Amino acid sequence: MTARKRKKVERQRGRNSHGWGAKKKHRGSGNRGGRGMAGSGKRADQKKPTILKLYGNAYYGKKGFHRPQKMILHQEIINLDDLQKKLDFYLAKKLVTKEKDMYIVDLEKLGYQKLLGRGTLLVKLKIKADTCSEVAVKKVEEKGGVIVKEDVPD
Fold first, then answer.
1. CA 111 to CA 75: how far, in whole Å?
2. Domain 77-149 classified CATH 3.100.10.10?
3. Confidence grade of residue 150 (pLDDT, cut at 50, 70, 90)
4. Dihedral sign for Cα atoms in the order 115, 121, 123, 126
5. What angle do CA 91, 97, 148 make, to 5 degrees?
6. Share of the chain above pLDDT 90, in %
7. Which residues contact 90 (CB under 8 A, 6 or more apart)?
8. Domain spans in the chain, listed from the N-terminal domain onward
9. pLDDT tens, position by position, 52-108
10. What is the rounded CA–CA span in Å between residue 106 and residue 148?
């Protein structure tokens, strides 16, 4: 039968250095001078000649640039059923006009850029919109309405 050997950690309890000499040693990467290529001589000249010899002048300094990314603008959207619910409110505020049985709606005036096709349409609409879905176009035209677009549907 083998004898059970006490683990080193267990034997180190009560000794504040745990076998690493002075108490302040063995404390994170600062003890070893950083991580990776830290201290390679960018400020002082300790390892600078070695680095230059191994990697050349390209090791130091900034390289290249980051191309500015295209900003994605937030589009305000509205569905057909939501527009239909709010028609009376917009009529009262004179943001929408009515000619006979057709409502004339300018989505830009209402603060929307895109029209989507959720819901069933019960009224005729003539809509001016920046963009709109194909489903919305189909539903409006089925009801006898018109969509005046400034962009192609997406």
1. 10
2. yes
3. low
4. positive
5. 125
6. 46
7. 96, 105, 110
8. 16-59, 77-149
9. 888 888 887 888 888 888 876 788 999 999 999 999 999 999 999 999 899 999 999
10. 9
Angle at 69 between CA 63 and CA 70, to 5 degrees: 155
Cβ atoms of residues 131 and 76 within 8 Å: no
Type of residue found at 30? G
80, 103 Cβ separation under 8 angstroms: no
The pLDDT of residue 1 is 75
Alpha carbon of 57 to those of 49, 54, 79, 102, 145: distances in Å?
10, 10, 59, 73, 69
**What six digits make up the tokens of 105?**
């709606």
